[in-house]
Amino acid sequence: MTRGDLWEWMNAQPRRAAASLTGKDIPTRPGVYAWYREAEPVYSGRALGGDGLHGRIWKNHLKTGNDLSRSSFRRNVCEHLGIAPTSKTTVRPTLMTAADVELVNRWIRGCHVAWIECQSAAEAEALERELHAEWMPPLSRK
Q1: Confidence of residue 49 (pLDDT cuts 50, 70, 90)
Q2: Angular region, 38: left φ>0, alpha ψ -120 to 50, beta rest
Q3: CA angle 58-63-59, nearest 5°?
Q4: What is the side-by-side order of every strand in the sheet holding 31-37?
Q5: Which domain holds residue 55?
């Protein structure tokens, strides 16, 4: 399956280096987001909760603690790097070694992230579904 119009829209959004993001850089509206590595999208998701994109990107995906269970992106990176399968990291709380978590965090800090803000959680959910219908990034599949 190839990327279509919605992925062209997502790929045209400003990309921010994960290593230089601060919490105040990320909006609190609902939305969809994509993580990029070497200019290619590797993961995409949606932010529906009260903290919107800020809560999902900042609090869950950029969180640096030893518990990976609240971030499918961090869990999938962990598995991608061969550290632990997602079947182990979905258990709450996941307690990984500091060295293993640092490998995951370093890989994520080497990424860029882009997002599209939405008017509502329902709109974000529909947009994510449509993006994934066009094309699914490799780390979103797990």
Answers
A1: confident
A2: left
A3: 35
A4: 16-17, 112-117, 31-37, 40-47
A5: 5-140
> How many domains in the chain?
1
Do 11 and 2 meet the contact criterion of CB atoms below 8 Å apart?
A: no
Q: For residue 36, give the CATH number of its domain.
A: 3.40.1440.10
Which residues are bridge partners to 114 per DSSP?
Answer: 34
pTM over 0.90: yes
CA distance 139 to 76: 6
Distance CA 113, CA 37 (A): 9
Distance between CA 99 and CA 57 in Å, rounded? Answer: 22
